[in-house]
Structure to design on (333 residues):
């Protein structure tokens, strides 16, 4: 068993935003072609802590480099007020020849970066023919920072960032961090989510919202909304937009905004396509066929196969660099 820490994973993935995006795109292609196995995520909840949860995401990715494993990720929003990260995760990879566990990997870096890579891929696909020079980030935390890193790799014309967070102190710190890490970007702050939505035709929601609270009225026509946190947008608003998802069966669960929209309508006809359907096997991007003047919302549930896509590359990089701790007697002899 090879054990890889947070710092090991960072050493391998730092500066690899473009590679992350392509790894995620390849995983989506395989998923669309039926060459993955992605059971529904398992949610462990606590009666006395309704805001907290731990999620298990088992998955298998086929193709030329098959891999199988599971991510076990917790979300404890109260950590933010304690000065700690909301989410923590571990990834277990299994041998496909013996089934034995072969690597235990700290998973928060992989989880954040596969989420960001997915968002940046969607932004690259869905903003074609639309303005790409600015983005509004609603929620000033780890995920939107990673999304910004990946957006800068996917959209080289990006010049302006507008921030909103319920905590003005958090948005101020976030603005300082962006100014340090992205000196070429102009950073602005606003005091309301609608104002942020109106600022650009690309918007990313990455919050801890548990209940939908906002519509799309403030968005400019043709805005692309990366609905990463899945529970910000009112279900009625989704019915007035074009909707792209990663997998309808996964995203229409657990009281996401799309789940609530399905409950309202009794169907999933409001979903236009999955992102894998917009990608071809040879790597080309197809015409989305979407009206550039209509708002389009990308809502990814976050498939475990994306974590495997990055974890497999992390394991390969760790072996090449000699990183991690090898525990030879983890399994019985």
């Amino acid at each position: 068993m090879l054990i890889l820490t947070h710092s090991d994973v960072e050493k391998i993935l730092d500066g690899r935003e473009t590679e992350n995006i392509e790894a995620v795109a390849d995983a989506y292609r395989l998923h669309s072609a039926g060459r993955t196995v992605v059971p529904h995520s398992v949610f462990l909840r606590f009666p006395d802590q309704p805001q907290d949860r731990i999620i298990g995401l088992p998955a298998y990715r086929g193709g030329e480099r098959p891999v199988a494993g599971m991510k076990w990720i917790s979300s404890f929003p109260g950590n933010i007020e304690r000065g700690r990260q909301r989410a923590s995760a571990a990834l277990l990879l299994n041998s496909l020849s013996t089934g034995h566990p072969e690597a235990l990997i700290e998973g928060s870096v992989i989880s954040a970066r596969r989420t960001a890579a997915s968002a940046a891929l969607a932004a690259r696909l869905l903003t074609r023919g639309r303005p790409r020079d600015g983005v509004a980030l609603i929620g000033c935390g780890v995920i939107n920072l990673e999304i910004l890193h990946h957006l800068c790799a996917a959209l080289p014309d990006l010049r302006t960032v507008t921030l909103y967070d319920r905590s003005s102190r958090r948005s101020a710190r976030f603005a300082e961090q962006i100014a340090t890490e992205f000196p070429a970007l102009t950073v602005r702050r606003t005091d309301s989510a609608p104002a942020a939505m109106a600022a650009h035709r690309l918007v990313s929601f990455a919050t801890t919202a548990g209940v939908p609270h906002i519509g799309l009225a403030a968005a400019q026509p043709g805005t692309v909304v990366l609905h990463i946190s899945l529970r910000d947008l009112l279900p009625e608003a989704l019915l007035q937009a074009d909707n792209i998802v990663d997998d309808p069966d996964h995203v229409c669960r657990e009281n996401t905004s799309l789940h609530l929209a399905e409950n309202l309508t009794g169907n999933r006809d409001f979903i236009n396509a999955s992102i894998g359907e917009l990608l071809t096997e040879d790597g080309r991007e197809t015409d989305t066929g979407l009206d550039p003047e209509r708002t389009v919302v990308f809502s990814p549930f976050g498939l475990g196969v994306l974590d495997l896509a990055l974890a497999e590359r992390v394991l390969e990089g760790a072996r090449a660099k000699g990183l991690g701790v090898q525990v030879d007697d983890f399994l019985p002899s």
Q: What stands out?
A: The CA atoms of residues 252 and 259 lie 4 Å apart. The chain has two domains: 2-110+305-326, 127-302. The chain has a mean pLDDT of 95. Residues 127-302 form a domain with the Rossmann fold fold (CATH 3.40.50.720).
